TrEMBL record:
The lineage of its organism: Bacteria, Bacillati, Bacillota, Bacilli, Lactobacillales. Pfam families: HxlR. PROSITE patterns: HTH_HXLR. Residues 17-111 form the HTH hxlR-type domain. This is Transcriptional regulator, hxlr family. InterPro entries: HTH_HxlR, WH-like_DNA-bd_sf, WH_DNA-bd_sf.
Length: 142
């Protein structure tokens, strides 16, 4: 799967397992974090840029285009500047969150550390509160 070209489509003649397909999305620099944030509620591009401060506007547009082609994200009807997760996107978000928690807990176990409890913000949290949560998200999603 070539997600770097923004097409979100498999390279011609190439096949891969379902796991490889999923891992390609999860290994992307921005997509897992975008999926995570869009799982709270529909967000506008400017809100996503605030939650992803290292991402440029052009990069965000390209990643949103790719996620739309993968049927993970859709623009909100009657508001082309706002995006939400599809049902498939919601399922993938659950997988991303559980995999991230599991991975960090395993690392802590390997170092004989006690894992911290993680509490997600409410989906009604203000954008300011979500931005404050960025350090925690980066710890889990990279």
């Amino acid at each position: 799967m070539d997600f770097g070209n923004g097409s979100g489509k498999m390279t011609e003649g190439k096949t891969e397992s379902g796991l490889a397909y999923t891992l390609n999305i999860m290994a992307n620099q921005w997509q897992p974090t975008m999926i995570y944030w869009l799982g709270f509620r529909p967000l506008k591009k400017k809100e996503l840029l605030m939650l992803l401060p290292k991402l440029s506007n052009d990069q965000l547009s390209a990643e949103l285009h790719t996620l739309q082609n993968l049927r993970i994200v859709n623009p909100v009807k009657n508001d082309e500047d706002q995006y939400s997760l599809t049902d498939d996107g919601d399922q993938l978000r659950q997988l991303i969150v559980s995999s991230s928690l599991w991975g960090l807990q395993q690392q802590d176990d390997n170092e004989d550390l006690i894992s911290a409890n993680v509490v997600e913000p409410e989906n009604t949290a203000s954008l300011r509160d979500l931005v404050k949560y960025n350090d925690t998200v980066e710890k889990y999603l990279g």
